[in-house]
Each structure stands twice: as structure tokens, then as C-alpha cells.
Amino acid sequence: MTTPVVGEERTLGFAQPDTRPPLRTPRTSLKVRNALVGWTFILPNFLGFAVLTLAPVLTLFYISLTSWNIFGAAQWVGLDNFTRLVGDKSFHTALGNTFYYAALHIPITIVASLGLALLLNQKLRGAAFFRTVAFFPYITSIVAVAVVWNMLFSPEYGPINQFLSLFIGGEMPGWTVSKDWAMPAVIIVGTWKDMGYYMLLFLAGLQTVPGELHEAARIDGAGAWQRFWNVTLPCLRPTMFFVTVMVTIQSFKVFDLILVMTDGGPGQATLVLSQYIYQKGFEQFEFGYASAVAVVLFFICITVTVVQFLYNKRKEA
Amino acid sequence: MAARPSALRRSGRVLLYVVMILAAAGIMLPFAWMVISSLKMNNQVFTAPVQWIPDPVQWRNYLDIWVKADMVTWVRNTLVLSVAVTVLQVLTGSFAAYGFAKMRFPGREPLFLLYIGTIAVPWQSYMIPQFQMLSSWGLNNTLWAIMLLQAFGAFGVFLMKQYYESIPDSLSEAARLDGLSEYGIWWRIIMPLSVPALASLTIITFVSTWNDYLGPLIYLRDRELWTIQIGLQSFIGEYNAEHALIMTGSVLSVLPIALIFLLGQRYFVEGVATTGVKG
């Protein structure tokens, strides 16, 4: 009965600031009702979200300041865990490897996925099929993918080294069993798996580039490369920003791929931060110390996101 | 003069086709190798040069795997989880998205910022406190843990909100004037119009739950609770020399996803594009 008025109130109440002091008038109670209705929509999801995501994120900081482990309850130790991180060789290795992975995975994935998107945007015949193919690795499970690639990378009889030996002589890369080649192998698989997803994002972004701009540039005598650099890329900036943020976070948190492909090995050659958190927390049950590592990962991801956000803002202005 | 650019253009097109075909072949190669190896005898998997056509074709692996691995249990658990998570995610996500997209009330903006903010927070950073919490509730080593873990993600809210905002407000305004409650508008006006987005969310959630490895790895200890990913990984450890059989298991774990993807590809692509365009 009263709901149509609620709808009206909804638009009125926010179109103009209410300056009257309308305590207890029907208007206020309707506003309250409207807010309550709004909350009921959000609540079922928000409760789950708050309890399962927000609460753990907040407790993380507390746990990282305690000595909680399998032997005893959480005891406040201040910054002890973090001072321990400074001298922890394995942590340094994990941190270095994570940056190594990110430093290669981010640019290669962006270039590859943008390249694929540009190719698909050429309106070639069979493009729809190609889109399916390129996206497929992204939706397949990491376990199946890792085991196949491990076999492909097999140093002695694997197809990849057989293929390479057609072109180069000498010693073949040991890939996942070699300290130097394990990380490149993981990066190759990571890029292969992820690029289809970002390709779709770029492809959606490319649809927003106005055709007239390209036409105008062509008439002005701009070549394909110039048009890409001066028309396409600037128009793609919002997409580029989103993709960069997503790839960056995804690279810094890399975990399951490495866990099933190399398990951090050989030695610690592919040990990354997420896996170090897992080892400390779920294998050695040092919850406090593992949480300190997790706090580091948390701040890396937040920082790179904020920095990219600010950079994007400045470019926009 | 006129012929040369067009000849150049044509050869450019040919080059593009060559690049596309090579890229497609390169991307699909691991899958091809997986299927081919699953049809070989074990000692034929690694040969030099690579044997691209299995001879003889070994269908046996597809029978043996059901005996050697507990596939039925794994598939059943994975199905239970995927269906439950998808139902929860689609219901609560599309419900909450209505509040965010179609209603104005105090607290709406900061709440949505909270959702967005968590996109930058990797699950790996808070998996320990989350595990402690769920364990203290006695949910460790139960399927409930995975359901709770996956069902309330920000992704569903985000995707549905983006889609709802493309539905003109005049529709819901008109329904309000006709006396429909907000819940009525959501159920009778907005939901029927959102079928494509609902399809996207359903498919994407189902597939990501099916593929989830880390959640089950941490929470599901009992063999009877294992999902196909955990099962396959342990099978690989146990039978690490049975390459052909491992490939068979891999094919079986990917097959349902491949089918869903091929059937609902449009919704996949649209879902990804919807969440990406606005950022």
C-alpha cells in the first residue's frame, strides 16, 4: 500500500538535502523504512562477506603481533615476528622470487594478451574459434594443467626440449628440475594460462575505441603503428589500468600454480610468499609468524594497487 | 599504383591468419598432448620423436582409472560443492546487487567500497585467520567450510550490480507506482531481465568452484571428502610413473568444464567483459 510512496521518497530525499527538522513525520519513517529495505537486500551476502573476509583480514594484524603456534595460545610479542623476518633467509628468497615472477609475468602477460586482442579485433574469419581456444587454458584446473606442462617440460624426453633441439645444440634447459630454469618454466605456464582472460578484457576495451578516430588518423597519413600508439593505446587507458592492477595482484599472490608444478623447488628456487605463508602456517603451525609474512603480502598488494590508482588519476587529470 | 596497396594488404591478411593459426596451435598443444597421451600405453608416452597418433589406441585407461582412483567420490563431492556454492552465490549476490544498484540509502557507498577494496586483498593473506575461525566452529574437515569460503565473494555482487545498472530505472519506477514492493520489483522485473548476467555468474562460479584447489587442500583432510582436484593431485603423487593414467585423470577432470564452457561460452565472455569494462 505505502510502497509507491517509498519509491517517490527515494528520489526526492536524495535529490535535495532535507533542511526541515522532520522528526517523527511520516517522511522520516519512510526514509528509515527505505533504508531498512535496502539493508535487507544487502545483508544476506554482507553477513557472509563480513564474517568470512573482513573479520579474518582484521584479525590477521592481531595474530601477526603474537607468538601463536601449535604449542601455545596467542601471546602478545609486539613486532618480534617482523624483526625475525628481517633476518630470515627463506623469507628473503620467497620475497625475491615473488618479485622475479611478478617482474616477468606482468609485462609478458599484458603484451601477449593485448597482442591476442588486437589480432582478434582484425575481424578475421575464425576469430570466434580462436577466442575460444585462447580463453580455454584460463578455465581449466591448475592440477591438470601443471601435470601436463611438467611432462612437456621433461628434460630428457619431453616434447619441448625435443622441439628446441631441432634449432639449438648443446645442453638443453632442465626446466622444472633446474634451479635456473624452474622459474621461467612457471612463468611460461602462468602466462599461457592467464593471457586469455586479459585478452577478453582488452577485447571489450577495444570495442570502445571510436572508429572515427582511426579513420581521421588514417586520413592524416598515420601508419598502423602510429595509430596504435596514438589512438588505440590512449583510448584503452581505463582497460589498461584495470588489467594492470589485476595482473599485478595476481602475480604477487601466485600460489597454486607453483604449489602443484614445482612445490617451491628445486630447493627454494620457486618458493614464493604465498607458499611461505602456507608452509609456516599449515605445515609448521607457526600461526603468528606466518601471519607476519601474510601482512607483508597484504601491504605489497595494497601498495601497488594504490600507486597504480594514483598514477592513473594523475594521467586522467 | 592501385594494385600495390591491395596486394600489400592481402599479404598482410595472410600473415595475420598464419599468426592466428600458429598461436591457436601453440595454445592448444598441451591439451592435445594430454588427450593423445591418455590413449597410449604407459611406455609410449615419452618417446623420441613424439608419437602424435597413439598406436594402438588404448581405451583401457578410461576403464582402469575408475578402479585405481576414487573418481566417483571425488566427482560427487565436487558436484555437491559446486552446486551449493553456485546457488548461494547467485541468490545472495543478485539480491545484494539490487540494494547497491537500485536503491539509495545511507551507508550504501562505503559498503560498496568495502567490497571493491577486498579485490586488492589476496585470499592467501588471510587464509590463516579464516582457517582458525572456521576450525573453532568445528567446520574444519567438512564440506561446509568450502561452501562458506566460496559462496559470499564480492565477484557476484560486482557482476550483478554492473548488469542491473544497465537496466533503465524507469522500469522499476513504473513498477513502484503500480504498487510493487522492492522485493517484488527484484523478483518480477529485474531478475527476469537479468538472465544473461545470471547465466554468466552461474557458469563462472560453478567452474571456479570445480577448479578450486587451495580451499579443499587446506580444509578437506578425509579421503571421503576429497574433491576431484585434490584427488587428482594425490593420484599423481601415488602413481607418478603411470603417465598415461595420470593424463586420463586430467582429461576427465577437465572434460565437464570443457563441455560447460563450449555450451555457455557466450555467457563466460560477457561476464568477464561486464566486470572489466567499468573497472
Automatic annotation (TrEMBL), chain B:
Compartments annotated for it: namely: Cell membrane
Q: Which SUPFAM superfamilies match?
A: MetI-like
Gene3D superfamilies cross-referenced by the UniProt entry: MetI-like (1.10.3720.10)
Q: Membrane spanning segments where? A: 14-36, 79-100, 112-131, 143-164, 185-207, 244-263
According to the entry, every stretch annotated as the ABC transmembrane type-1 domain falls at: 75-264
CDD domains, alphabetized: TM_PBP2 (cd06261)
What keywords were assigned to this record?
Cell membrane, Membrane, Transmembrane, Transmembrane helix, Transport
Q: How does it sit in the membrane?
A: Multi-pass membrane protein
Transmembrane found in the keyword field: yes
The entry sums up its family as follows:
Belongs to the binding-protein-dependent transport system permease family.
Q: PANTHER family, alphabetically?
A: ABC TRANSPORTER PERMEASE PROTEIN MG189-RELATED, ABC TRANSPORTER PERMEASE PROTEIN MG189-RELATED-RELATED
| Protein name, per record | Carbohydrate ABC transporter permease
Q: Which organism is it from?
A: Promicromonospora kroppenstedtii
Source organism phylogeny: Bacteria, Bacillati, Actinomycetota, Actinomycetes, Micrococcales
